[in-house]
Amino acid sequence: MSSALNIPHDRVSRDAYIRKGPVRDFLDSYPKSGLGKKHQRSFQSKWFEGRKWLEYSKDYDAAFCFPCRVFGTAIYDETFQKTGFRQWHRALETNRGFAKHAMSQQHEINMNSWQTFLSSEPIDAQLNAERRRILELGNKERQNRYEVLPILLDVTNTLAKLHLPFRGHDETETSSNKGVFLEVVELVSRWNADLANHLKQASAKPKSYPSYTSPSSQNEMIQYSAQYVREKIVKDVKASKYFAVCLDTTPDTSKRDQLSIIVRYVGANGDISEDLLDFVHAEEMTAEGLFESLKSVLDKYELKMDNIRGQGYDGCSTMSGCYSGLQARV
Predict the structure, then answer these.
(1) What are phi and psi for residue 43, nearest 5 degrees?
(2) Distances in whole angstroms, Cα of residue 95 to Cα of each of 54, 90, 99, 151
(3) Which pTM does this prediction carry?
(4) Number of alpha helices (DSSP H) and beta strands (DSSP E) in the chain
(5) Tens of pLDDT along 82-102?
């Protein structure tokens, strides 16, 4: 068949093709055919009137039935479905041509299928509606998750302020003690419907709906809170300009030395503040190595070494040695 009669295979294109309707090539004069000049006939455009199913292709110089060609599940009238009708002298004869085809049961079935299709919502509109529904659902889920984040951050900040441990030894659903963080979150959810619904959704869809209560999420929230507090400390130290540093090391469970750096300064209201600035791994426990660690942290927060007005260490010579210790180097 010509390109105009080719029915697309993909759903969206097929939908558009059907809604466009029958192929109707209107010509000033249609090709004539028949035996002898006296008996030649041609298609007439007035035949379209009252026959909305009728279509004509100039490429084939033939008439077809649009609903039977598109919706017919089997070839029962090859002329109007596939090869095309060209016997123009019989087109309007009773029980022949157009009338005979229009009275067939299969034609009526296909006409009903066509009308049902036209009364339905276009496939592209259905797809767009489904996309919108999925998008709106996703936006709602994201909004719900964002609404519970402040609650979880409040729990994080409260536990940090009280110096309480977050994790439990057994954080499974059946555990009677999941750790302070999860237990407090569960307690708050009993009085907060948004949080309760969030935890329910996360439990039902663990792979697609993040709960923000996992160990990694807890650590991330702790880091965000720590970053906020640290930025506030650095801002206050810079406003004060001059400050003192206190350093000490302690081995962790892996026996690696961790260096804690504390700053002491006078706040805007005149009160003395003493805050932990950072906690870093001490690469070398020599005076030079500790000095480089301190300098690296101060450079990181853009605090000037020249503004140090006091130092505090333990009695170790590496720290407080007056000749080659860290104190002398600072």
Answers:
(1) -65, 145
(2) 17, 10, 6, 80
(3) 0.50
(4) 12, 8
(5) 999 999 989 998 888 999 999
